[in-house]
Amino acid sequence: MPHIYIAGHKGMVGNAIERQLRLDSKNHIITVDQRALDLTNQQAVHEFFAQQKIDQVYLAAAKVGGIYANNEYPAEFIYQNLMIQANVVNAAHQNGVQKLLFLGSSCIYPKQATQPMREDMLLAGQLEPTNEPYAIAKIAGIKLCESYNRQYHRDYRSVMPTNLYGENDNFHDTNSHVIPALMARIHRAKINKESSIKAWGSGEPLREFMHVRDLANAAIHVMNVPEQIYRSIVEPRVSHINIGSGQEFSIKDIAHKIAEIVGFKGEIKFDISKPDGMRRKALDNMKLQKLGFDEVISINDGLAITYDWYLNNYDNARG
Fold it and tell me: Which of 58, 134, 148, 307 is catalytic?
């Protein structure tokens, strides 16, 4: 029975991974609330690992947010993410944990990267300025895992998900990602009988979206691919794997899909004074497919699932 620690189990990604892992009764899941364990505290993290019997780690803990949050709090984004990653990875190594999966982000790739973005495009150009501190922290996480693999022969893997959405997302109006922010705004407009809503940017940028349940299944799949097969697909210094859906839409298309699911009949106005971010951001999925994973929830089904979860879990969504 593997003892599996999920760092960040209360977040959208960590929670989805926990739900999927608990479907197998053979897994012994270890979680701890952030109020009881501050992952930015090196001593506390090392003491926790020393007290536990851990065979695998899913490192999903992170400080995350959308364009606004990344712009407003760059110091917190780089500091907290660097500290969490360094503490967890080093504590895992010091306590003999051989298998770890680090979850990063597609924002690690250069702003002008050729689309769809391949893993070998990492560090090939300048990053998107709006999320550079977060991206640099995630790049450091990849290199941290690679370094422990090279020096200590650990099996620490990294996956870079595309834009995620789904249950347990953050539906804050300004500090969240595009789908939950639009969903909450459009829902409120419907409840309040407003004639229009405003969305950030031009609506033209293209984004790839993946339901968090798919990401959880992909992460578990990558963690459990036999090491010999995994090493045949990745290189020691380009060891991360993209996790994407192949489903790409403009922000404008997504806004209208959400409006249809919510039942909002008003106008969606796009505020071009707000930043767009990268014009397109899609991932090359070939390595993931070579590892044998290729199952994706459709965008319409995923948005419907997400809206249903929002209605049942946010008090202000009930009207």
Answer: 134
Q: Contact 135/128 with Cβ under 8 angstroms?
A: yes
What are 196-207's pLDDT values in tens digits? 999 888 999 999
Q: pLDDT-based confidence at 317, cuts 50/70/90?
A: low
Q: Which CATH architecture has domain 3-170+208-246+280-298?
A: 3-Layer(aba) Sandwich (3.40)
Residues 6+ apart with CB under 8 A from 84: 7, 39, 40, 59, 61, 62, 63
**79 tagged catalytic:** no
Mean pLDDT value of segment 98-110: 96
Closest CA to 126 of 142, 113, 138: 113
CA–CA separation, 103 and 160 (whole Å): 6
Instruction: Say which DSSP state 238 is in.
Output: B
Model pTM score: 0.92
